[in-house]
Design goal:
Largest sheet: 5 strands, antiparallel
Radius of gyration: 62 Å
Number of strands: 32
Number of helices: 30
Shape: elongated
Helix content: 40-55%
Strand content: 15-25%
Length: about 900
């Protein structure tokens, strides 16, 4: 404990001895030598110089140690100049040595500089001792000068000394302004007394803003820094302090602070060490990077001796840093590869690098590992190569992965397609023989290249990068891709890229299979051309078909007018007195009516097919009783069956079955099936209609004992215009459209129709299935049945440009008791209605000059005819025709050939409504 205290007191004792030595001597030159000698001993410096300011304001060497005499005699520096930098250059001070300057100040006047040079920087205690020595030196020099002045001429010397002191103050200011350090002087009240130009520049305030102001008030942020406690320590304890400071006034800057107490206050020097700090941080960061690197980082000298060894080197090779540093690098090289090291050192000494050199190295336990070496020369400050740094990466796992990728890709080599495997970066690892043939690159040329650079056409490079990104996410890709060959030519390829996964499920690479599809593309283009040609031909055919359909619609309209007359007059004959008196006339009338109805049905079928093909056939669905609908169809075919002596049977359940359907269309379907069955059944045969239900469906079966159907023809029964016997000598007529219409109408009702037959001579059976309706209602007719005199005294106006049609309707209505007037044109009808009153008007729509629509509009303008019901008579029975007639204001739409019974029922219903309306008005 006493020894420690003694050591702590030694610097103070030494300073006290020096003080006694230099202050007791009054010889100026001796004082100078004592200052230099004692300063050298005090801080252990080999080189030391004492500069004094002469009368011309120059700093000259007055005493020195360890310096060439010629330099002492020749060197001088301007007070305003950078003396320290000039001296450092003149002394040729090495970078590893430190040059320290301490001002010699007496009574606030700079009298000189004490400069030392040594290998190690001064510590805080040494700096304080040197500063104290400088203060003692200033006193001793002043005493010596005063003694000399007293010897010469006390008064003159004193005056000159005062002037010199004033000039010295100016020179001090000049020196302080010239140094690169920041300097400021504060008094005991912490007010700025002096500042140099560097302080103003770095602190951002002018001299006038600082002199006389308290430092802590000007810069309050400094209170929270280490500056505040350290300066207070120097001031209060009267000791020099030295510390490093992260500045709050200059963001990002670091300063080395030296504060020296004096009687007047505190002198503070701040040296900018920001670059040094940043270098320290950089060095620390680099050291951290080296230590944290996954790669082994090793340095060696030109003799191959290891100088540094990071943690990853320990992990990879098994040697600790203590075991490796100082030993030759050949400890890692297998015997069979010793020749690699001389070759590497030769390249390094030439200043050349070695990049990604793959080789094998030996670990401490004797095992061999695959590594990739990157070697760079290390240079000193003069640029001379003094060693090498090595980065060794363990590529054993990568090698195993590449081998696995190549193996998996090799499994596809048997296919006649290009098989290419890459790692996760797209570097080619496998390139089969077909790939060589397809792309033109040999496997030696391709392996190690990037697949995108190698095969992607310029136009598809961006797409290739997107595909690669998708593969890295573990997804596959298949599609057409434009690729290029070695000669630069491009061609389309069908490519399938897939990820390759290792044993542990990790993604390790990609494999692509590709094939030239130039020929296929050519075939596809030809196919597209043919398809376009076919599409155009189909379009033309569809247009021709549309024209045909329009023609059929027009033809059916033109046929309906004469059929209407034939059927009407057949009805006249059937109901005439002549038919009642003559069996022949009655039979002829019935035959005429039956054939007219058949012809009418044929025209109707043609028109419906036309509508179906154009997608214009619509259904008027309602809850329909199957028995009622089938009964109507049976009644229509009854006469034909009786004429052929074919028995018609209807087998129905007691319950009433309803289906959601268009009653007219279902009746049309059943009529076609019955008509077909009667046609192919010989005399004495039977046609049976069965009605039943099955799984929420209504089932209608039409079975005959007729000729049957050849089993080879059954798949074609419902085809348009197909007939089992299509020869000119066939026994049965027909166009072959009825069954096709049946199938399409049933499908339009969401139902099915099927046919079965045991063969020729075994009869046939057609089965229809329709969804049952959720509604179950009894269809009741409020319209009285047609009978003689049903239209008694009903006044009817018939308007039609066809004389035969007008005459036929007049006779029929008169037979039922109606009073009938006729007109051959719209204007004639308008003239008639101005003089007569009618209960109903029936008008043809398609008339020359004034059609039925225009006539209706003009009739509605006449006061007496405005409310008279008008029925449309037309050969056009399409849905759009019906809709337009109703929209224009016709009471009903009657399609030719006219169903007389239905028309009479409509007229009767109309008369009942008219009477009820009149009765309500009277009340």
């Amino acid at each position: 404990m006493n020894e420690q205290g003694t050591r702590n007191k030694e610097p103070y004792m030494r300073l006290a001895e020096i003080n006694r030595a230099i202050t007791t001597s009054l010889k100026f030159d001796k004082v100078l030598d004592l200052i230099v000698e004692n300063a050298a001993q005090l801080v252990g410096a080999d080189t030391i110089l004492l500069f004094l300011v002469d009368k011309d304001g120059f700093l000259r060497v007055r005493a020195a140690k360890g310096v060439n005499r010629a330099l002492i005699d020749s060197f001088s520096g301007s007070v305003e100049g950078d003396v320290i930098r000039q001296l450092q250059k003149a002394l040729e001070v090495p970078d590893e040595q430190t040059l320290v300057s301490v001002p010699v100040i007496a009574k606030n006047s700079l009298t000189g500089l004490l400069i030392i040079s040594r290998n190690l920087p001064l510590n805080g205690e040494e700096e304080w001792q040197l500063a104290a020595l400088a203060d003692q030196a200033a006193i001793a020099l002043s005493n010596a000068r005063l003694h000399q002045m007293e010897l010469l001429e006390a008064t003159r010397e004193r005056d000159e000394t005062l002037e010199a002191l004033r000039e010295s103050n100016q020179r001090v200011n000049n020196i302080l302004e010239s140094i690169t350090d920041l300097f400021y002087l504060v008094d005991r009240e912490w007010r700025f007394v002096e500042i140099n130009r560097q302080t103003q520049a770095r602190f951002g305030k002018s001299r006038d803003e600082l002199i006389g102001r308290v430092i802590w008030e000007v810069y309050p942020s400094a209170i929270d820094s280490s500056l505040f406690p350290n300066l207070h320590k120097a001031m209060e304890e009267n000791v020099a302090v030295h510390f490093e400071l992260a500045s709050k006034l200059v963001p990002g800057a670091w300063f080395e602070v030296h504060a020296y107490p004096a009687t007047e206050g505190l002198s503070v020097y701040l040296r900018d060490i920001t670059d040094r700090k940043r270098a320290d941080v950089t060095n620390h960061l680099l050291a951290s990077i080296v230590e944290s690197s996954e790669d082994a980082i090793v340095s060696k000298d030109l003799n191959g001796i290891i100088n540094s060894w990071n943690k990853s080197a320990e992990r990879i090779f098994g040697y600790t840093a203590r075991e490796a540093i100082g030993h030759p690098i050949t400890m890692l090289i297998p015997p069979d590869r010793f020749d690699e090291e001389p070759a590497i050192l030769e390249r390094v000494m030439k200043g050349q690098s070695v990049d990604h050199y793959e080789t094998v190295r030996q670990c401490k336990d004797g095992s061999l590992i695959d590594i990739s070496l990157t070697i760079s020369p290390i240079r000193n400050e003069e640029g001379v190569v003094i060693g090498a740094s090595k980065i060794a990466r363990d590529i054993g796992e990568r090698k195993r992965t590449e081998e696995e990728v190549r193996f998996q890709a090799h499994l596809l080599s048997a296919v006649e397609q290009a098989v290419i495997a890459t790692d996760l970066k797209g570097t080619v690892l496998y390139w089969n023989v077909f790939a060589e043939w397809l792309y033109g690159w040999t496997s030696v040329e391709a392996i190690g290249m990037n697949i995108i650079d190698l095969t992607a056409a310029p136009a598809t490079r961006e797409m290739a990068a997107e595909i690669m990104a998708r593969l890295r996410e573990g997804d596959s890709w298949t599609g057409e891709f434009l690729v290029r060959k070695k000669d630069g030519s491009v061609f389309p390829a069908q490519v399938t890229d897939s990820p390759i996964f290792g044993e542990n499920g990790e993604l390790i690479g990609f494999v692509g299979v590709s094939i030239d599809i130039t020929e296929r593309k050519s075939v596809e283009e030809e196919r597209i051309r043919l398809l376009e040609s076919e599409r155009q031909a189909r379009s033309e055919a569809e247009e021709a078909n549309r024209i045909k359909d329009e023609f059929l619609a027009t033809l059916s309209h033109e046929l309906r007018n004469p059929l209407n007359v034939i059927l009407g007059y057949a009805e006249v004959l059937v109901r005439s007195e002549e038919a009642k008196r003559s069996a022949f006339v009655k039979r002829a009338a019935e035959i005429l009516k039956r054939n007219a109805l058949a012809q009418s049905q044929l025209v109707r079928d043609l028109l419906d097919l036309s509508r179906l093909h154009m997608g214009k056939l619509s259904l008027n669905r309602e809850a329909v009783s199957l028995m009622t609908t089938i009964g109507n169809a049976v009644e229509t075919v009854q006469a034909e069956a009786a004429a052929k002596e074919v028995e018609l049977k209807v087998i129905a359940p007691e319950e009433v079955l309803f289906v959601d359907a268009d009653p007219l269309r279902i009746e049309q379907v059943v009529w076609n099936l019955l008509n077909n069955a009667v046609k192919f059944t010989s005399a004495g045969g039977t046609v049976t209609v069965r009605i039943s239900s099955e799984a929420n469906q209504g089932v209608v079966s039409v079975e005959d004992t007729g000729e049957g159907i050849d089993r080879t023809f059954i798949p074609h029964v419902f085809e348009m215009f197909r007939q089992a016997d299509a020869t000119n000598s066939r026994r049965h007529g027909g166009l072959g459209i009825g069954l096709a219409l049946v199938q399409q109408l049933i499908q339009l009702h969401d139902g099915t129709v099927a046919v079965s037959s045991e063969g020729l001579g075994q009869g046939a059976q057609f089965t229809i299935k329709l969804p049952l309706s959720r509604e179950s209602k009894q269809v009741l007719s409020n319209v009285p049945q047609t009978e003689d005199g049903a239209l008694s005294q009903m006044r009817i106006l018939v308007v039609d440009d066809s004389l035969d049609s007008v005459d036929m309707l007049r006779r029929l209505f008169e037979m039922d008791g109606a009073i009938v007037s006729t007109a051959r044109s719209g204007p004639e009808a308008l003239q008639i209605v101005t003089n007569e009153h009618f209960d109903v008007i029936l008008s043809d729509i398609s008339m020359p000059g004034m059609d039925g629509f225009e006539l209706l509009r003009l009739l509605r303008e006449l006061p007496g005819v405005r409310d008279t019901p008008v029925l449309a008579l037309t050969g056009f029975g399409r849905a759009e025709d019906v809709a337009r007639a109703k929209a224009e204001g016709f009471f009903s739409h009657v399609t030719k050939p006219i169903d007389l019974g239905q028309l009479v029922e409509t007229l009767q219903e109309l008369r009942v409504k008219t009477r009820l309306k009149a009765s309500a008005g009277a009340e």
